[in-house]
C-alpha cells in the first residue's frame, strides 16, 4: 500500500543503503471531536523495523499526548486527532533512533530483549551486526507499554508465521530482508527462509530463466548508450561508497579507516598500460595500509571492475589469487560481485554465470563455496530481492558444476 520506500536511517543519503522501509502513510477520518489519523501501512513499516506495530503507534501517542487504537487482527492503527504525515514521519525517526538503531554502530539490525535483575527490568537493543547490547532510555513512557507487552520471539530454526512477522518477530531491521551468510555472518539472518526452502525456490525460479541466461549463449546484450553508461558509472560510485563505509568491520564506517583510504585510492588510481603494474601497485597499497590479508579488502577490491568485468577478470586474476586466501575471502568476493551485478550494473545480471565461470577457472573460487553461496540467500551485501535474483541467474553455472561432477563420477 505504500507509495515508495526510504532508508530506515533517513540521514543516510546512500541509495544503495540496504536497510529500507515503506514511507509511512496517513489518512484523516471523521470530523470534530471524532477526527482521527489512520495509519494504513503501519504493519508494513513496523515489519521493516522488526518491531510490533503497536509499539510505533503507542510511541506516536506518547509523543503527541493523544489516545491510540490498535487492532492487530485487522491491521488497523489509529492516533486520535488530525496529524500531519510529515510530523508523524519525523516522530517515526525518533522511534527508530530510540528503540531500533544500535547505540554503538547505528545499525537497525537489532531486536529488543527484556533483562530482569531482581525486580528491575531493562529493555536492551541486541545488535546482530556488531554484537553490542545497548539500553534504551527507560524514562520514556513507551517502555512501560513494552514491558507489559514484550516482543514475541520466533522459534529458532523456523520461519516466523505471518502473525509473528506483523508483530516484529525475528532479527534486526532492514525490512526483514537482510540475510547474511553462514558462520559468524549468520547472526543477522534471523527470520530468513530455511536453506532447503531457499534451494527449492531458487531452483524453481531458475527453471523460468530466459534462455538468454544459458551458459553457452554468446549474445549477451547491454545498453551501451552514453546515458546508460553514465548512469551505471554513477551507480558504481555509490556502491563504492557503500562498500568502503559499509560498517562491516570494526572502524570501517570511519572515513579515515584504512578500508576507506583503500577504496578511495582505487577510485582515483591512474590506469597504467600494463595491468601487472596496476596489480602490484594495488597490493602494495593494501600492504601499506596493513589490510592485504583482510577479507573486506577483497570486497572493496571488486569495485575495480566495470561493466567490462568479463574482459577485466583475466587482467586482475593474479591479484585476486594472491589476496583471496580463504573461504571467508571467497565469500567477500562473491558479496562484491553481488553488488557489482545486482546494484551497480544490473544489465550484467545475465552474465553472472560467465563471471562465476571465469573466477572458477582461474582457481579464485572453489566449487563448494560457490554452491553454498548460491543456495543461501543473503542480505549482508544487498537487499534480499537482489540477492535472490543474482543467485537465480547463477543457476546455469551451478548446473554445469553438477554435470561436471556427474561426468567425473561416471569416469570413476
Give your account of this protein's structure.
Keywords: GTP-binding, Initiation factor, Nucleotide-binding, Protein biosynthesis. GO terms for molecular function: eukaryotic initiation factor eIF2 binding; GDP-dissociation inhibitor activity; GTP binding; translation initiation factor activity. This is Domain found in IF2B/IF5-domain-containing protein. The chain has 412 residues and is α+β, with helices and mostly antiparallel strands. The protein folds into two domains: 162 residues, Defensin A-like, CATH 3.30.30; 229 residues, Serine Threonine Protein Phosphatase 5, Tetratricopeptide repeat (Alpha Horseshoe). Helices cover 46% and strands 10% of the residues. The strands form three sheets. The chain has a four-stranded antiparallel β-sheet, covered by helices on one side. A three-stranded antiparallel β-sheet has the order 7-8-9, with helices on one face. Strands 1-2 form a two-stranded antiparallel ribbon. A hairpin with a 5-residue loop joins strand 8 and strand 9. Helix 7 packs antiparallel against helix 8. The longest helix has 19 residues. The protein is elongated and about 75 Å long. About 19% of the residues have low confidence.
Amino acid at each position: 500500500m505504500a507509495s515508495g520506500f526510504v532508508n530506515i536511517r533517513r540521514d543516510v543519503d546512500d541509495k544503495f543503503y540496504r536497510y529500507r522501509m515503506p514511507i509511512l502513510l496517513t489518512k484523516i477520518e471523521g470530523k470534530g471531536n471524532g477526527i482521527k489519523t489512520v495509519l494504513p501501512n503501519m504493519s508494513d513499516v513496523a515489519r521493516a523495523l522488526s518491531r510490533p506495530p503497536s509499539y510505533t503507534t503507542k510511541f506516536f501517542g506518547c509523543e503527541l499526548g493523544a489516545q491510540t487504537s490498535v487492532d492487530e487482527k485487522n491491521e488497523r492503527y489509529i492516533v486520535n486527532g488530525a496529524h500531519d504525515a510529515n510530523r508523524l514521519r519525523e516522530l517515526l525517526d525518533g522511534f527508530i533512533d530510540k528503540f531500533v538503531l544500535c547505540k554503538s554502530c547505528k545499525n537497525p539490525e537489532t531486536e529488543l530483549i527484556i533483562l530482569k535483575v531482581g525486580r528491575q527490568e531493562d529493555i536492551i537493543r541486541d545488535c546482530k551486526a556488531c554484537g553490542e547490547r545497548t539500553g534504551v532510555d527507560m524514562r520514556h513512557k513507551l517502555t512501560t507499554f513494552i514491558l507489559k507487552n514484550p516482543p514475541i520471539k520466533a522459534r529458532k530454526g523456523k520461519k516466523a508465521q505471518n502473525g509473528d512477522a506483523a508483530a516484529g518477530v525475528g532479527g534486526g531491521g532492514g525490512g526483514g530482508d537482510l540475510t547474511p551468510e553462514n558462520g559468524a555472518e549468520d547472526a543477522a539472518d534471523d527470520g530468513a527462509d530455511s536453506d532447503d526452502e531457499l534451494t527449492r525456490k531458487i531452483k524453481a525460479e531458475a527453471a523460468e530463466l530466459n534462455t538468454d541466461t544459458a551458459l553457452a549463449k554468446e549474445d549477451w546484450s547491454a545498453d551501451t548508450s552514453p546515458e546508460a553508461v553514465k548512469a551505471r558509472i554513477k551507480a558504481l560510485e555509490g556502491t563504492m561508497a557503500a562498500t568502503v563505509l559499509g560498517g562491516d568491520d570494526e572502524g570501517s564506517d570511519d572515513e579515515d579507516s584504512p578500508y576507506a583510504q583503500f577504496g578511495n585510492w582505487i577510485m582515483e588510481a591512474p590506469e597504467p598500460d600494463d595491468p601487472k603494474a596496476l596489480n602490484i601497485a594495488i597490493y602494495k597499497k593494501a600492504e601499506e595500509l596493513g589490510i592485504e590479508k583482510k577479507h573486506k579488502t577483497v570486497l572493496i577490491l571488486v569495485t575495480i571492475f566495470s561493466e567490462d568485468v568479463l574482459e577485466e577478470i583475466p587482467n586482475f586474476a593474479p591479484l585476486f589469487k594472491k589476496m583471496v586466501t580463504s573461504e571467508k575471502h571467497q565469500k567477500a568476493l562473491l558479496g562484491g560481485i553481488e553488488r557489482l551485478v545486482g546494484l551497480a550494473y544490473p544489465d550484467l545480471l545475465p552474465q553472472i554465470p560467465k563471471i562465476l565461470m571465469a573466477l572458477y577457472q582461474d582457481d579464485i573460487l572453489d566449487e563448494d563455496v560457490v554452491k553454498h553461496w548460491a543456495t543461501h540467500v543473503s542480505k549482508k551485501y544487498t537487499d534480499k530481492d537482489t540477492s535472490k535474483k543474482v543467485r537465480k541467474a547463477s543457476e546455469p553455472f551451478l548446473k554445469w558444476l553438477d554435470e561436471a561432477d556427474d561426468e567425473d563420477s561416471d569416469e570413476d
